[in-house]
Amino acid sequence: MPGHHTERSRRSIERKGDLRERAILDTCEALLADKGYSAMTVGDIAQGAGITRGALYFYFGSKQEVVAALVARTVEHLWERSRTTAQADEPRQAIAEAMRRTVELWSEHGLVMRTAIDLSLTVPEAGELWSHTADLFIEAITAVLERAGLPAGTGPEHAPAMARALCWMIERTFYHASQESPEKLREASATCEHIWLTSAGLTS
Amino acid sequence: MPGHHTERSRRSIERKGDLRERAILDTCEALLADKGYSAMTVGDIAQGAGITRGALYFYFGSKQEVVAALVARTVEHLWERSRTTAQADEPRQAIAEAMRRTVELWSEHGLVMRTAIDLSLTVPEAGELWSHTADLFIEAITAVLERAGLPAGTGPEHAPAMARALCWMIERTFYHASQESPEKLREASATCEHIWLTSAGLTS
DNA sequence: ATAAAAATCTGCACCGTGTAGACTTTCTGG
DNA sequence: CCAGAAAGTCTACACGGTGCAGATTTTTAT
């Protein structure tokens, strides 16, 4: 009886809805890459996932929420990978390593990253998700700047404020470059790295 | 007869349609500040301008076009003002002056600027307009960097590429800061100015 | 096994955008 | 003053996003 119950619970963990939800996000990801956000209709997504429009609204409150969930799923993978990457102690190395990872990230997931940014401007949910992600980056940059000798205060020329500006610079620069070519992406990376180094007082 | 014609032409210069167009943009600007982009319907704009929905579609092809035109109108004013401002020769002064003007710009027209950026991501027309505006800034920054001694080549660490990254940094930083408070805007300005100076090799 | 409860799904209606065409009013040139 | 162009209105409709009442299926408790 207890064993039976456990078996039932195990089966119950994976509800039909979970499958559907994954199917919806998978379809959404494919359509996003294929047609773009605005050309992709809720009907398209529903059809691809094998349900009707109405049913989709049982899982997600809106089209934007679907995409926001897709972004969240993708970003989660990225965090996992980032966490496992060791942080170098030497600022110059840390910066180089961070930029290398950022290029990798944008090369592989440029579309989703750009969509995340697009949505973050208009969808509060996506906005919070993205600003949370940005905060992680800002913290990391702040740490590097402080190790390089910048003061840790709250003034406009202290590490946290500088890190914020640098983070936005990287976000925006990569946003544009990733639309062009992998080549541009590498160039953009070099430029950002240079400005970062200079701002950290590590004039090469 | 020619005089008559001239008189008519003079009157004709200001067509009814021009009035309407201005009325539409004025209403749009007010509604945008009042309810935001998505909550503002084409019917609202038309009603505020004293015409019907159909008539509005005679002037503009879409809701997005209306807002794009509003952005264009605002940006044009800015260019005019910028052009009349004399360019300082000394890089340090030029940078300070540029940042001062940028703060002013975002303080007064933060909403339209942010809307422009929001739209530029999804509306091709607005995108071109904005990237054109950005190019003007990038050129200006490039000029300052070169006067400060940076090489003018096309490499990632040469003036044009650096100017581009700095421009995006400023855009994004001001976008966020202008949503917070005039106080934050001034702080953000100080941070950006510092990074700009440092990148130009003008370590204060 | 079975009834209640929860999860899932359908179909329809609503609202706003955008298009098309017919029709009226207002210019404007001659 | 007239004819035609320009400006504006109205109606109808297709389409996409969204909310909802209720049917249907699955799970849970007994």
TrEMBL record, chains A, B:
Signal peptide segment: none
DNA-binding region: 41-60
Domain of life: Bacteria
Domain HTH tetR-type as annotated: residue spans: 18-78
Keyword Ligase in record: no
Keyword annotations of the record: DNA-binding
Coiled coil: none
InterPro entries per UniProt: DNA-bd_HTH_TetR-type_CS (IPR023772), EthR_C (IPR049397), Homeodomain-like_sf (IPR009057), HTH-type_TetR-like_transc_reg (IPR050109), HTH_TetR (IPR001647), Tet_transcr_reg_TetR-rel_C_sf (IPR036271)
Protein known as: TetR/AcrR family transcriptional regulator
